[in-house]
Structures are given as structure tokens and as C-alpha cells.
Amino acid sequence: MKILVSLLLSACVFTGANAKGLDPTYLRCEYKVNPVTDQKSPRLSWELQSGENNQVQTAYQILVASTPENLTEAKADLWNTNKTNGRATYQIEYKGKPLSSRTICYWKVRSWDKNGVPGKWSDAASWEMGLLAKNEWKADWIGLDLDHLGKGKIYHLPPAPYLRKQVVIKKGLKKARLYVTALGLYEFQINGKKAGDAFLTPGWTDYDKRVYYQTYDVTSDLKPGENALASQLSYGWYAGYLGYSLLVQNPVVRAFYGKVPLLKAQLEVEYSDGTKESFMTDQTWKASTGAILESDLLNGETYDARLEPTGWNKGGFDDSKWEKAQVFADKPERLIQVYPGPPVKVTQTLEVKTIADRPGGSYIFDMGQNFAGIVGIKVKGAAGDTIRLRFGEKLHPDGRLMTENLRMARATDTYILKGDPQGETWEPQFTFHGFQYVELAGLGYKPGKDAILGLVIGSDTPKTGSFETDNAMVNQLYSNIDWTQRANYIDIPTDCPQRDERIGWTGDAQVYAKSATFNRDVASFFTKWVVDLNDAQRKDGSYPVYAPAPDLRKSDTFSPGWMEAGIICPYQIYRAYGDTRMISEGWPAMSRFMDFLEKRSKGGYVFKENAFADIDPKGGFGDWLSFGKKTPPDMLASFYYAYCADLMAEMAGAVNNQKDFQKYTQIGAKVRKAVLAHYSDASGKFKTDAKAYGNGAGYVDGALGFTGHTQTAYANAIYMKIIDKSQTKKSGDFLVALLKENGNKLGTGFLGAKPLLPALSATGNTDLAYRLFLSKEFPSWGFEVEQGSTTIWERWDSFTKEDGFKYNAAMNSFSHYAFGAVCEWMFGNAAGIQATQPGFATFDIKPEIAPDGMGKEGINHLKASLVTMNGKVVSEWERGNSGLNLKVNVPVNTVARIHIPSEKSQQILANKENISKSKSVKLIGTENGHTIVEAGSGSYEFVVK
Ligand code: RAM
Fold it and tell me: Which of 605, 620, 847, 927 could form a cystine bridge with 559, CB 3.0-4.6 A?
């Protein structure tokens, strides 16, 4: 059925694409297809298809109606934009009649093309308004305090509460909606069927400030008569273990927001006679424990199937022995809002690749890929048989599961059989692990591959990017990057999915944010997390080192290179998706942060040596995991200050805030001046007063000493345009010289690795950028691939075939995306896809061709694509015997500047015509070894002979 539908769909798109004029498709509201939202003016978008080249929209008309029948020009009762001139196809705010809670809005759109001809109306789409005011929540917070249970030697893991209530639904049900949230995690069932398919709901927030809810259409799950509402709760981020608090011996190690997980649910039904009824969580619900004996995100789940209260989630169950649910007071200031992000889901299943026998009757299953998720098991045995599942990313050379790098995360699931002769299946509900290998112990027979199924979980961000070359190492690297993003974009952007950390480290998030936008549509994912970031802003205006920000360790405050995520992430989302709401809503918080920087700089607009000696570690994390002498963290902090001021100026401009545009433009200039005066000499070389740092005690790797003349310094200065344009080339030369001195090997850490290749490209050193990119020697991306990685590692040599695990246990994650930020260069430079206007309304295609003559070690063919807000951009180049072949796809309603690498003497064909006579593209000129053409929508092929 699914296949048929998608065939039909593609057939539709196909006819659309062949037709003249414009066809709007992929109608979305708040980045989602037919969502529930509580935005009072939700933003609409569509993508345009056309069979003609050079097509643009000159006007559009949107209709919004409260019923499908009313969705006509004559009857549209909520909004009719009439013919509205303009190119906009996204971020269009609804400006019709005010919308009240629960309203379903049906909408469609049509577009006028370049000739002023209107196209067909799109198919109808819809959105539904959630509960807009907190007082529409009549349900109580209910739960069962089991905190006194489950105290072990190390871990305190109480069982999961089970809650239930039977309700009577009358005949003639028309519509039913279930609104649910929890402090903790919930799974909700109606008559034994799980509501929705999301995982780890309702997500992690600063629960004192806000909690999100989900809305489910449960109309078809209810029947006339008795119905069972049932829910299991877990401790999750609210009441469970978080981060490294146990490892660092923080006084609090769990229950950072509260001890007792709580449920709030409201079932609202509407009958065909117009009457309504609601069923709410309250003191009439019943509560008990069940089969889930332990349940924790970091530590895993224990399920005793013998304790399953059979039928508890269905009607007719006798709950007379269950306790009364306890009602808990609300915090009046806590907001309850619609979950704005993409739901966390099982996005893929993975089958076992191989099974290895282990001593003592255990087995290790290799899933063939490092990922984040859980496994489902299928086993048979006697009642009381206990299956223990442990998870690891790697094996020791002797075949043992390597779990040392999980540190204090127990990451163990246990299933106790009930003894069903037919066999039993189980999967945990409220935990996840980062792993490739699963060790199964306690089974009385040799299992087959079907004993375990890998369930990949992650925020369901649509795949938008692709990257393929004729170089196997590079293809594997790209796969590693995407898998690592999937494993770490789980409700929030985390550092890693496996050890006792898994928190929203802001430094990792900011260096990787732009890369993420090339792989997947992360607009709504960041819509959610940027709120977490702003909620976590510290009193002094700084952004924390992780968000959400419970007190995992007293000394965690803020850090240069990390805290700037508060500016950089919204900026990247604005650039990729044209999102200005994130700017205007976040402006007060972002401005406070800029004030914090100004205050910190004490009127000097530069951070001199030891400016951050008061934080822990001194100076912050600096160029984390870099090699050699340290780049002064204060210098980097100063660069970031200028960069943030620039981004603020640009964002102010985007929302027509002239005053702040000027203010931040001036600050940017002041910082640059002060930074160069302090940190560079007359020749443009970066320097620092190394003596000021003394013996470096308290600084990260401070004993190595400090110098301003580092790869990281120049890479960042070029990337952030700290130096005067006229000096850029010089900085590039310094960078090249430093690399040369280092045997053409990178020495950059988290802050230096991302800008390194872009900075080389920007200064005319593409060949060297490729050399680093294609290297297989330590330290490099290729080295990791050569060591058998399927994800990006925290360290280049987290594991080596030669030395095994050099840094075991301490800090050694095999799924850490920070170094994956090279993705930005892969798409932006190697494929040359660069937005010149937010949302790719206009963009450059300026591919940088890999050096010739490297054979299999090089790249001769590269193809990248990206589905933007406007549609799919493709950039493909291939070096053949007869010259260079470049293929480009420009989506409808956009204009591209295509920079074709070519020498003056070379002949260029555009779609088989001589380029100077081409009717399909407009010749703009030549510049630095490129012929530049402008092209509207369509597919183009250029041949450079
Ligand atoms: C590590 C985290 C993260 C990094 C911080 C400073 O433990 O995993 O990647 O940002 O420390």
C-alpha cells in the first residue's frame, strides 16, 4: 500500500514537473506536514514544481478555511490573502482571523508564474491549533511516589509507575484528541494501543520553566462503552540520572528537577450531536507498579515479565487492589506548550550482521553500525530466566565487549522471562544506548540472528543532503558524519549517545550547526533547542556550557567557544531556512549575551590574556583536544566576540532593526581593531604574551604553553574575517607555513578543525585543503575511516588497529560529531553549494575541484545535493578525459551564480551550446580562474574542454 501511494505521488510530481506554470507541493506549517501547533500566527511554506526553466513565482494566493468544504475562494472563512505579489514561499505568517484552541485549519495555495499566469491550486493541507492557554488544562499532575524503592549500592533506580483509568464513551463519537505531557517520560495507551509512535516523550526542557505536550488524534482508538486509558511513566531527564554528575561526585546525581515522575493527560471527545466531554488525570486514577523494575536513560531498563499486570491497559481489568493516584501541585509559572521539534522516533531497523560465542554462554551480536537506539529481543525460556543485555561501541582485541568508555553509565537492559512456550518479545520503552555491539547473557540456547533487532532512534529530521564521490574513504566519512548526527540529535544536540554525558554541550553544537543543515532538515529541531538555550541563559547574560543546564557539576559555568552557541545556532538556522522568528524571539536574550561580553571586556573590546581566569577550567575549554602549544583561549574569545557582533548585525538587518544593526556593526569594528592591536604584530602574525599564563596551571593543557601563531588562530581569523581583507592572503600563508612545519598535518581541536579547510580554500589553498581532507595519516578524517570507524570519533585515534584503545575509559566516545564539522567544507567548498541569501533564494555553485593525478586516493567525481526551502540544489562535477563536466540543478524560484572552473583559453559548452551564445544561462564574466554565469531554475550541464 505504501509503495503504491508513493508511486502515485511521484507520478503526480512528474506530471507537475512536465507541465507549464507552477505547482505548489510539500505544503508545511511550522516546518511540518499537517502539524498541531500553538503558534498564534503559524508560518506556512511550500515548494514549487515546474516543467519550465527559469521559473519564478510572481504572486501567490493562500486560502485557509475551518472545514474542507469551505476551502474555496468564495467561502474561505479564516484567511484569503487574495493575489499577493512576491516571491516568498516560506516563512509566511498566517494573518487571518484569530485562531482559537483546537481549530483545524485547512489550507491551499496557488502561485502565479513569471508570465503572470496562475497555476493550479495545490492539494489541501491542514494544521490544528493546540491548547493555547494554560487554563485550558484541567487535568492534574498525577503519579505514584516510588522513590523509596530501588536503592542499590551505586544506583538508585525505582520502578516505573503504572497509571490507569476506565472511561465510558457514548455512541456517536465524532472526534477525539488526547493531550499528554509528563514530568519525566510517558508512554500512553488507549485500549492497549500506544498513542502515536514517538519515543522519549515529552522531551527535555528546563521543567521549572516549561514542559511540552503531544497531541494525538485517537478518534479511531475509542469505542462506544468502556475504554481503558493507561500510562507508564519513567524518570527520564526529569528524575533520572543525568550526565557525569555521578562520575564527578556532584552532591546531586539524579532527580535534578523532581523525584516523582508525573503525568498530565486530557482526553477530549466530541460527539456528532455537538456535545463534548473531557476525561482528565485526577485523583480517581489508579496507580501501581508493574513489570518495569528499573528505568533510566543512562543506566537502562529492567523488565520482569512475570510481573506484567496482564490486561492492565485494557478495559475490564480489576484495579481494585491498585492504589489511588497521588495528585501533585503544579508550578504556576511553568508553561505547557506544544512540542516544537521533530518527534524522536525509531527511524530505521538494523539486522544483526554476525554473532560471536563468548565464554560462559553469552553471545556478542555485531550490528555492523555504531548508532543510538535500543534493541528488541525475541527469546524463549523458563519463567525467571534472566537475559542481560550490555552495549558497547567496540570490542577488545580478545573479543570482549568494551564498556570502559561508558564510565558510570550502566547501559544494561535486563529481561526476566515469564516462560511463554511460544517465546517472548520485548524492547525497552524509556532508555537508549550508543552502540554497535550487544552482549546477550542468560539464554539457555544458541540464538539466531533474529534474536535481536536494532531499533535506531533519533529526532526524525528529514534527510535533505546527499554526498557521493568515486572515493570510498570519502563516502564512508560522509556516512559516518550523518550517522553521528542521527545518534546525537535526540531531542537536543548531544555530545555523545553512550557514556554518562549525553548532554547539550554548546561548543559541540555551535561548531557543527551549519554542517547539520547540509544533511538534514534541522529547522524545527533547533527551534526547540534554541528555546532550551535561552531558558538556560545564566543570570550574568552568558550562555552555559550545556543546555538544558541542570547543576551537574558546581564548577560548570560558561566558556568562550561554547557560550556563543546562543548567537551562532539561531544565525545558522536563519541562513539555512530564512527563519527570522528565531531572531526576533531570541533578541532580548541574545542582546543580553552581547552586553555580557561588552561588560567582560571592560570597555576594551578585547579579551586579553587571563581575561577568563575566574572560570573553571581557566580560560574555558579553548581549542579542546588540539595538539601542540595552545591557542590562547582569550584570543579565541576575542575572535568570537567580533564574529558574534557581525552575526548580530546581520540578524538585526534581517528583522529591520536599524539601531542594533548599527550598534553591532560598530562593535564588530571596535573588537577587530582592539584584537589586532593586541594580538598581532606589524607583519600580521598572531602573538600572545605567553608569560602572562605563567606555567599554565588551571588551563586545559596549559603546561604545553601558549602561542598566538597556530593553525587554529589563522583558520578562525580567516573564517571569521577578523583580519583586514588585504591581509587575508598573508594569514593564509602563515597557515600554510604552519601546516608545512607540521608535516602537513592538522593540529586543530574542536574550535580549529571546522574553519581549517574553509580557511585554506578562502586563501587559494584548495589543493592543501584536499590534501588534509584526503589524508589517511594520523591525525585526519581518513585515518579514522582507515581504523574502521562507522561514526565520527571524539579523538582521531580513539581506536587504532596498532595500539587499540589508548585513552580507554577517560574520555573516548566513538560517536562525537564535533570533528564531523568538516561537512561544512564538503558541501560548501568541495561541492561549492553556498547560500547567498537566507533559505537559498539565491546561491552560489562554486565547486573546488580536487587535485588531479591522485588516482584512487583522490576525487575525480563528486555529487552533492541539498533539498532547501526552495527545492533541490544539485552540484556535480567530474573530471573526464576530455575535460571537466559540471552538472547543476537550480530549483524553481531561485537564481544561482555558477562559477565554472576554467582558464581563459578553454572552451565551455552550456547545455551543449557555446556558453557565450547560450540561451539558457547568462554570462556574467570571468574571475580568478572561473567563468561565472547566472541561471534560473532548471538543470544545466557545462563542459569545459
Ligand atoms: C566533553 C564533552 C564535549 C565537550 C566538553 C568540553 O566531556 O564530551 O564534547 O564539549 O567535554
Answer: 620
Ligand 1 cavity residues, CB under 6 Å: 495-496, 501, 505, 507-508, 621, 624, 811, 816
* Rounded distance between C-alpha atoms, residue 284 and residue 302, angstroms: 29
Closest CA to 818 of 756, 754, 775, 774: 754
Cα 254 to chain centroid distance, Å, stands at 25
Class of domain 465-830: mainly alpha
- Rounded Cα distance, 828 and 822, in Å: 10
Instruction: Check if 134-341 and 345-459 are the same fold.
Output: yes
> Where do the structural domains in the chain lie, given as residue ranges?
2-129, 134-341, 345-459, 465-830, 838-944
Strand partners, 105: 127
Residue 546 CA, closest ligand 1 atom number: 10
CA-based nearest residue to 399, from 442, 366, 375: 366
Q: Which DSSP string do the residues of 801-821 spell out, in sequence order?
A: TTTB-TTTTTS--S--GGGGG
Concerning whether 794 is annotated as a catalytic residue, the answer is yes
Three cell numbers, residue 419: 516462560
Residue 882 pLDDT: 84
pLDDT at residue 1 greater than cutoff 70: no
Ligand 1 mean position, distance from CA 394 (Å)? 20
Catalytic residue among 501, 564, 598, 650: 501
Write out the DSSP string of 501-548. Answer: ----BHHHHHHHHHHHHHHB--HHHHHHHHHHHHHT--TTS---SBSS
Question: Could you say which DSSP state residue 159 is in?
Answer: P
DSSP string, 594-660: HHHHHHHTTTSSS--TTTTTTSSSBT-S-STT--SSBPPHHHHHHHHHHHHHHHHHHHHHHTT-HHH
Cα-to-centroid distance, 887 and ligand 1 (Å): 40
The hierarchical CATH code for the domain 345-459 is: 2.60.120.260
| 837-886 per-position pLDDT tens digit | 999 999 999 999 999 999 999 999 999 999 999 999 999 999 988 899 99
Q: Is 424 a catalytic residue?
A: no
Atom of ligand 1 minimally distant from the CA of 624: 6
Please name which of 50, 20, 53, 18 lies closest in space to residue 911, comparing C-alpha atoms. Answer: 53
**Domain 2-129 class in CATH:** mainly beta
Q: How far is the CA of 688 from the centre of ligand 1 (A)?
A: 26
Pick the CATH number of 838-944 from 2.120.10.80, 2.60.420.10, 3.90.226.10, 3.40.50.1820: 2.60.420.10
Cα(552) to centroid(ligand 1), Å: 13
Task: Quote the ligand 1 centre to 727 CA distance (angstroms).
Answer: 34
The region, left, alpha or beta by phi > 0 then psi within -120 to 50, assigned to residue 301 is beta
CA distance 628 to 464: 38
* Mutate which of 624, 625, 750, 751 for ligand 1 pocket (most atoms within 8 A of beta carbon): 624
> Atom 9 in ligand 1: which residue has the minimum CA distance?
495
Stated pTM of the model: 0.97
Averaged over 33-44, what is the pLDDT? 98
The Cα 35–Cα 340 span in angstroms is 10
In the set 47, 439, 794, 824, the catalytic residue is 794
CA distance 399 to 417: 27
Cis ω for the linkage preceding 428 (within 30 of 0)? no
Top mutation candidate among 242, 488, 495, 626 for ligand 1, by most atoms within 8 Å of CB:
495
Q: What are phi and psi of 444, to 5 degrees?
A: -85, 5
